[in-house]
Amino acid sequence: MKSALQHGLWLARSEGMAFAVLVTPAERFGRSEGVHLEIGVPPGEAGLTLSRAFLDEAERLISQTGSYRGKVISLEATHGYSGKAGGVKVHKLRSVARDEVILPEKTLQLLERNVHGFIQHRSQLHRLGLTVKKGLLFYGPPGTGKTHTIHYLASQLRDHTTLLITSEQVGLLDEYFQLARFLQPAMVVIEDVDLIARAREEMRSACEESLLNKLLNEMDGLREDASVLFILTTNRPDQIETALTSRPGRIDQAIEFPLPDEDGRRKLVRLYSRGLSMPDEIVNTIVRKTTKASPAFIKELMRRSAQYQLQAASNGSLAIEHVEAALDEMLFSGGSLNVKLLGGAVEG
Predict the structure, then answer these.
(1) Global pTM value
(2) Are the C-beta atoms of residues 194 and 233 closer than 8 Å to each other?
């Protein structure tokens, strides 16, 4: 027994106008790709108005189901040659609290105004006839908290569906944008956007330019009343095509994620040393020795320091020798490549 309707034909009337609705399986090269919906109406403006109203209502009903509301999803490509999506993967991300987002205060205020503040006033902006889709670019050195902040936003926007697009999935842009339209309000995340939106003069093939054009066209193709928030991330903002960054409606706000200052490093040390007993002088030493280090580096430093403490079978507070041993391993024993990989720096 089939669990869902496979074929359906409905004959109906709306305000005296006859129309038909046909539902069939969607296929491509003999493979099932979901459901195909057709509506047949009489020719003319009245028929066009009815078809638009019907499809808008279908879209509204799908959106109201809320099956993926508050979830982070991505598409999985099939192993076939078509490159089409084969299924939906739901990601389980840990919840990130606001006090775990360690950024300069001005950056936090800019982030919250352009995300939470914008969403809070979205319906009022819509009533004023203003666009309610928005694009943000997160940029900065590796390990400065861009992905961590996205986890925070995804865990806070419980009424949104988050669509996560990695560089391996850019061939599925059509499907992602269709989902964004159906599942709005949605947050579309494109990580390492410079891989598909590289400046045209830096492109090495027509395929790369085709992907860029597809991204620009899809972003432009969303209606002004689409409740879609774009978050694009990059470690190399200077390599992004200006057609993406210089036009409002695609990217409306760039937000820099800098290396943490002294206050930020102190908060990061406390955040990533939970469960460790650590006197203030050790915290001060770590803060002084991690100038120009990324949050990812400090996180790894605290883990390795804890490991050295456990190896020493020490039940007391974290000692400076544990921190020094971890720093030596991360910055000197591993060579310059290891320092680059970890995003670290050290001061005497």
Answers:
(1) 0.77
(2) no
- Contact criterion met (CB below 8 Å) for 73 and 90: yes
Place of tokens 């964004």: 180
Closest CA to 178 of 33, 31, 24: 33
Residues contacting residue 247 through CB under 8 Å, at least 6 positions apart: none
Helix axes 295-311, 262-272, angle to 10 degrees: 40
Q: Which residues neighbour 107 within 8 Å (Cβ) at sequence distance 6 or greater?
A: 255, 256, 257, 258
Terminal alpha carbon distance of the chain = 72
Residues 6+ apart with CB under 8 A from 157: 70, 115, 119, 185, 187
* Pairwise CA distance, residues 194 & 167, whole Å: 9
The values of phi and psi at residue 187, to 5°, are -120, 120
Q: Could you read off the pLDDT of 198-253 as tens digits, one per residue?
A: 777 666 667 777 878 888 888 888 888 889 999 999 998 888 888 888 777 788 99
Strands of the chain (E only): list them: 8-14, 17-28, 31-40, 72-77, 85-91, 134-139, 161-165, 186-190, 228-234, 253-256
